[in-house]
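Many introductory courses stop at the sequence. We go one step further.
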Amino acid sequence: MNRRKIKHKEKLNIAMFGQKRIPSREGGVEIVVEELCTRMVAQGHNVICYNRGGHHVSGSEFDSKRLKEYKGINLKTVPTIEKKGLAAVSSSFFAALCCAFGRYDIVHIHAEGPAFFAWLPKLFGKKVVVTIHGLDWQREKWKSGFGSKFIHKGEKNAVKYADEIIVLSKGVQDYFEKTYGRKTVFIPNGVNRPKKQKAELITEKYGLEKDSYILFLGRLVPEKGIRYLVEAFKSVKTDKKLVIAGGSSDTDSFMKELKDIAKDDDRIIFTGFVQGQILKELYSNAYIYTLPSDLEGMPLSLLEAMSYGNCCLVSNIPECTEVVEDKALVFKKSDVNDLLTKIQKACDCPEMIMKMKEQATDFICRKYNWELVTDETMNLYRR
């Protein structure tokens, strides 16, 4: 089916799927979709997001009311089979079906798994754009079985059927070029300049004060390197606490394993999933923020941490070092001893930390801008 040509400055009908749901902080994809969609709506475009059904990834206690509209974005919840591996497949299929038969100029699919269904809207003459948020088949939970096959095929279908592919890092761009000979467009994520918050709720709830803790914030999954972080921190000589903020993803077994490693060190605090004011206070008052990942797409939590003026300690994977350049502390990926050394140095050298904190916000907010990201995405839609 032929696709009509999109005119310059024409108001577009845009559909998005692949996110779990918006509004939500269940993962980076959800934040990206919300930031893009709210700005596209502000520019006068009609945007619909197909949300997954089922419970919040960190547990039903975090479920929110199903909305039909949010900040001008139309929301539709699609049928979802709530079993591990089937939630993404089923919701993506029904979303792709809706997109195929809907009156959309652009169908924007987020992540490799959902891209499996890129052929469906393409068959019905839609312009299909896929954002690769990371090479998801590398993640621990998708290394084998049906999920692994589905994600690998999703990657191949993105290459075969997408009119445009957006990548968030140069490493992933190189991967698509070398593996498939496929050109992609590099558009990184953005970040907002936040207002810092005083430590109030976190003092009341966890006994935390400004600069009294080291913060990790993210999903509790093996590839985030949290096991190394807990093991390293236990040998650090400091009165500071280690705050691990985030919920488990799909299974609680890894969370239990982490708590077991940490059980004899009362300086280590597990908050569970956080959002809203507590999240803002945690970012605002940390001594340092650490992201010890083995694997990342484009780490939004790192951008957010720096936007709050944090000195960051990251693993030396390109997806982190490309973001921080020389404005953060870096340790060797998966190396517990090097991580221990760097945390100890950070605790022993507050002047160095304060110097890095002073330059973090301006550096990151100049480098990653959501308005620019939205404009570049809209230009790609019209190409």
